[in-house]
Amino acid sequence: MISGRLMWKVSVVGEPDAGKSSLISRIVFDSEAGSFMGKGLLRKKITIQDQNRMSQAELILQEIDGLPENDKLLAGSSAIIIVVDVTKDVNKKAMEKFIKGANKKALIVIAANKIDRKYEAVTWREDLDPFVKNYNLELFLISTKIPETVNGMIKEIGKLLMGRINGK
Ligand SMILES: Nc1nc2c(ncn2[C@@H]2O[C@H](COP(=O)(O)OP(=O)(O)O)[C@@H](O)[C@H]2O)c(=O)[nH]1
Ligand SMILES: [Mg+2]
């Protein structure tokens, strides 16, 4: 049994304009505007439905521009969401380096964002799949403008983090 309050620090990283602020805004406020910077860390309570049990947890969201290496800011992150803009080329070398350097204990998730503009996409699932396979990551195709895609990802992240606690 888990008692007390679960708090998970979630770091949202990625190139400028990938959609990190928009993603956090969607998660926390269910809105599109990403102009909350300066308000510090943002929190979101989530409910996790795992088999027969419901659990509550709080996500503490932190935005970091770029793919920081050895960044103290990342310390203590339960999850790291790498936001990738599918309408731009992905720097695979930088991404691989970042993933290799990141804390092995953190759940690493790639959020391939802006799929509402998929007709302009230059980065495809096939480009990201090797990371998923080689490093055992999770990949979600999302658009911060399509709430269901973000909600679905957050639900899944909640389940995965809960599963880690329960030793699954
Ligand atoms: N079409 C589309 N635009 C998006 C999406 N997510 C973010 N944007 C836009 O991309 C730009 C950069 O977003 P922002 O959240 O500030 O990126 P950040 O620099 O990573 O924090 C803004 O103009 C957003 O409106 C998306 O899913 N679809
Ligand atoms: Mg931002």
What would you note in describing this structure?
The chain has 168 residues and is of the alpha/beta class. Helices cover 30% and strands 29% of the residues. It contains four helices and six strands; from the N terminus they run βαβββαβαβα. The protein has helices at residues 20-29, 92-101, 125-135, 147-165, and strands at 6-14, 42-50, 53-65, 79-85, 107-113, 138-141. The longest helix has 19 residues, at 147-165. It starts with 5 loop residues before the first strand and ends with a helix. Magnesium ion is lined by residues 20-21, 34, 63.
List the topology elements.
Elements: E1 6-14, H1 20-29, E2 42-50, E3 53-65, E4 79-85, H2 92-101, E5 107-113, H3 125-135, E6 138-141, H4 147-165
Parallel strand pairs: 1-3, 1-4, 4-5, 5-6
Antiparallel strand pairs: 2-3
The structure holds guanosine-5'-diphosphate and magnesium ion.
